[in-house]
Amino acid sequence: MGFFTDTITSAVVGKVTDKIISDVGKLVKGSKNEGASQTSSTTAPKAQSGSDFESILKSYLVPNAENMVSEEELFASLVGERISNLKGADTAAQFSELLAVNKEQMRVGSYIPHEAAAKATLQQLRDAGEISSEEANQIYSEAFGAAQLDDNPEALWDGLGSASDPTMAVAQLETALIGAQQKIAAYTSGQSSVALRSLDELAASKKVPAVKTA
User: Are 175 and 70 in contact (CB under 8 A)?
Assistant: First the structure.
């Protein structure tokens, strides 16, 4: 349920940030010592080919028994894809490893706040100097927009609740992948403009709009 995000983020992320940022530094140093052949890009990300895009997202996504994924899960996978596209495999690997740590640290029973974990990880990479503030905001904005599965563009919801629950937004895996790829392609081609957001914005949008009555 989406409203857990703010509480979990403030209570847990603060306790593990120092450790995670230290881990980022070690990972960065290791990747540089390995002599990675690629150079970090500062250009706008491009759309991945269909197979690459799907492969990256599927490496993060774990559909439920009905083969459904939520907006929050899709968002986290899209952050990874956008990092891979913009910054390359080394930074994407750092994101993946740190995301796994954050998800485990933020877990409450079986519940994992995927949005909060992905945001915290992206913030840590930014704060460690691996991604600029401008790049981080761009990645966040594109992933947030492309992860939308319902008609509320100002929030990302999880997969918990009933079919009529306004704080649940899910779709079949293949449907979610196709929709996300189409949105990313539209952003990168200029066919559609993404709503720019700040990575540090508060999740005030988690509040469910009041239902209007006659």
Answer: no
What's the pLDDT tens digit per position in 28-70? 444 444 443 333 334 455 556 568 999 999 999 999 999 999 9
Domain assignment present for 38: no
Residues 6 or more apart from 114 whose CB is under 8 A from it?
A: 70, 72, 73, 75, 76, 103, 158
Range of the domain at 126: 4-29+48-199
pLDDT digits (tens, 9 = 90+) for 97-137: 999 999 999 999 999 999 999 999 999 999 999 999 999 99
pTM: 0.76
